[in-house]
Amino acid sequence: xxxxVIACSxxxxxxxxxxxxxxxxxxxxxxxxxxxxxxxxxFSYLGAKHMVTGYDHLLFxxxxxxxxxxxxxxxxxxxxxxxxxxxxxxSGVLFQISVDAYIIDxxxxxxxxxxxxxxxxxxQRWFGVQPSTKAATLIFGLFxxxxxxxxxxxxxxxxDGLLANLIAFNVGVEVGQILALSGILILLxxxxxxxxxxxxxxxxxxxxASAGFLFVGYQLTGFFVA
Length: 226
Description:
The protein is an all-alpha fold.
């Protein structure tokens, strides 16, 4: 199966429901609301689940590593994303900074569009410049973390053990990110060995941009309708 088909499927999934945004399900919401005290293992599990099931994060990271062939480059960009994600998740929850969830999720959807267009060389053709991909990865990492912080604040997480649980959650996020990226890299590795990779790279990123646009449209619709 070509990765472009996977991207299209993800686009349809992304437009189906916001209940799964950031991997926070109703069951997890209830657990977060009822939990009190330090619970490192459960929150580590929730962090890993958040990343593995967070299609918004995975689509963005898929775009980020699409044309990265060296493991060192993958590590640099993923680290930048993780740093941004951690900073705003921790600060957003600890200092109770939040914005409308629909708006922040629309920005996250835009991050997917941005990276797909970047992979397609759109900015070089349209504006004659190439924006810093490292800076964009860090900046959008900040928005991704802020989006989850906004969700967690809605669930009124107990202040008892809050910092320890947030740190455990972030550790789980990193573990989940490694697992998810390993799967993506394996699929990309097989695809890159075939002659179809470069032929279909543009189509795959077009599908990725479409997924992002659907996600943005869905969230903006929710903002104006809710």
